[in-house]
Design goal:
about 425 residues; alpha/beta; Rossmann fold; Dihydrodipicolinate Reductase, domain 2; Alpha-Beta Plaits; 3 domains; ten-stranded mixed β-sheet; six-stranded parallel β-sheet; about 35% helix; binds L-homoserine
Length: about 425
Amino acid sequence: MEKREVSIGLLGVGTVGTGVAKILLNQAELLEHRTGISFRLKSALDLDWSRDRGVDLSSVRCVTSADEILDDPEIDIVVETIGGCDPAYQYILRALNNSKHVVTANKALIATKGRELFSAANASNTDILFEASVGGGIPIVKGLREGLVANRILNIYGIVNGTSNYILTRMHQDGLEFEDALREAQDRGFAEADPTLDISGEDAAHKLVILASIAASKMVDLSDIYTEGIAGVTKLDVDFAKSFGYTIKLLAICRMGDGEMDLRVHPTLVPDSHLLASVSHELNAVFVEGDSVGKTMFYGPGAGQLPTASAIISDIVDLARDIQLRANSGYRTRTIDPFAHPTVKPVKSVSSRFYLRLYTYDAPGILARISGILGAHEISISSVVQLETHVHDNYVPLVILTHSAREDQMERALAEITSLEVILPDYLRLRLFQ
Ligand code: HSE
């Protein structure tokens, strides 16, 4: 096989970019041995070169202007690890327009600008790869796109936000309050710079756009994803769920119906017997069901310097092999048609089992009024628990599990229930895993 050198330009040498540099420089021999290709980290962009990054960059051109990478005809692959949309988007577009392949870990960018980026890649016969954008070091993007290429994807259930999973795990296993667990997640470095993206479910929705678009081979819009985060989940809810035999997980859900995709991100009561319930702390997992393969689960670290860099390197190697073989460039990106829109099921017509937690005045006839409203909306109750131990001013927590009901039925029933003068405004509605 012809030996060839592939030159790489790295945009952004923060935590993840440093991980990429470390692997490219320290594992050069291993990568060359495995591929027959020599990987040269030619240039790296950052604004601050005074900081010691714990890696010897003496063989790398350390630049402060992106032009030196984007306009360098020697560079074959541009790796974007800056994050955020600006200027990452402009840099990537320029790289693609200059016929360079791109590797990015930038989930927000792929989720919001995927259409434009994939079109630009198609137009210039280049690839933009993004393995590290979902599930950190877990090879889920390639797993779906290539490993499961023979399958019609039926369902995806992902635990793809490590911060939310860490918080929920610490609440479930160790009885921590939400705020304390969030602070720990931030200290441990896997929360986003703005942790509201984690807590609001938006980061998981970005990742679901990516997974669902690969599954559908069409570009899903972020606005098509019904998104709820974990901010309303209290320790009381976690304890209630536990007593019913469930663990609360923030799930990114893609279910392929008959021609319609059901796309949602929300906290979900997962039965303790399901594999996803045992995915704890900051770990991620993506449960995928395909029509030929059946049920599979991809599991591992969803963030962190070296796991994320590991995923980026796998994209670099794929691109280098394509370059070496002069393979039909851009074919991996063509997996997703940027101009096709999948049909998405309106959330109001989705059915689930529900968990309702209310605070009700403790007096005769109230439970009958609530169950009457649910019954009038054709919602059937499967369990009810009222706690005597949490009485506040004669208000007590009441938890109801229902049989399957449509979202719009539940919405209408809840509007009536929460307008009762005997119900406090603080309530929570969650869905059960199905
Ligand atoms: N904030 C993300 C998380 C980092 O908590 O999973 C990885 O995308």
